[in-house]
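Please check this today:
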Amino acid sequence: MTNLEAHYDHVIIGGGMAADSAARAIRTASPEATIAILSADPHSPVYRPALSKDLWTGEDADPASQELHTAEETGASLFTSTLVTELWPNSHRVGTARGQSIHYGKALLATGSSARHFPGVEDDRVVCLRTVGDYRHLRGLAQDGARMVVVGGGYIGSEVAAALTRTGAQVTLAHAGRHLLEHLFPASITGHLEQTFAEHSVTLVPGFRLMGIDTEDELVLHSGQAESLHADVAVLGLGAVLNTNLAEHGGLDLDSGAVVVDPYLRTSARDVYAAGDIALFDDPLLGLRHVEHVDHAQASGTAAGKNMAGAEEAYDYTPLFFSDLFDDGYEAVGRLDASLEMREVWNQDRTAAVVHYLEDGKVEGVLLWNTWDSVDRAREVIAASQNDQLAPEELDGQITPG
């Protein structure tokens, strides 16, 4: 590893997908610029979705196969295990936990999110899945016959539970709702998913709100309903916390817990940009929002990198997100919220669907269930609906399921 210099043209704080994309965009636009990537993670940037997807379902379980090779391919100087603790926008400097001070021309905050842990519990058998280190640790614990309890029926919890069935472990998925993923999907899909998980020997425990964890010879997880689950390993999918402490202490404007950016992804501080999970941006279709998915991380990182290198290109993108659960998969755009009005369109054999999510008669989101190559059209449907050019009764024929 090269030594950390006192000055760089561009300092990128964070070691995820947004940081990687920004470094590539800067190098393309400004080949002679000096770039430092300061990452608290001890591992090089990887394609993070693989940690809960491909590394469990493919032939290669080594996370090195998902490494992005950011430093080699961009010429940036990558410094892992380097925690940035201070941001001084007025003097264009950042400080590290080791007491180093680095001057920057432009800085990017791409600090992402951290897994939400259960307070007061420190045990190697209680795991979250967010980093390469987490993946390797969980992979080692997922032995044939091990009792694995996944807590949380959201995006990451459902993916992890599905992934663990590949290991021979006994998998239980405990979640707070009445039905799996009911906050996202209509009953037609949640019912199908519950049947699919049961067919793959996943025990579903609805109505489970984690209230405590005993860490004796075996783990005992307690719910608010006096119900207990016994486990060898607990995997917590309790959501994520935005890593905005650096921005907050640096005096940057925050709103709704995220870092406010302008159309060019600039923060309230001169020459400081933000991308990825932490950025509160103006979505061209849906207004102010922050998005915690890889498509946004990559797209906003690229846009921020271009603008740091001198472009003035607005970030006018509506991100997608996606997941695979056994033999089913989906892509989606916008808000998937089951409290909204949901209009479903199914193919003839009911293996694929398009679900429109409406509020006050306008489409806020589109789910493409086992329906592919339709994301751009979904964005067009949202735009037309938001602009009063598409009535709810006209939605059925807009996107063909399948």
The chain is about 20% helix and 30% strand. The CA atoms of residues 366 and 378 lie 6 Å apart. The longest strand covers residues 101-109.
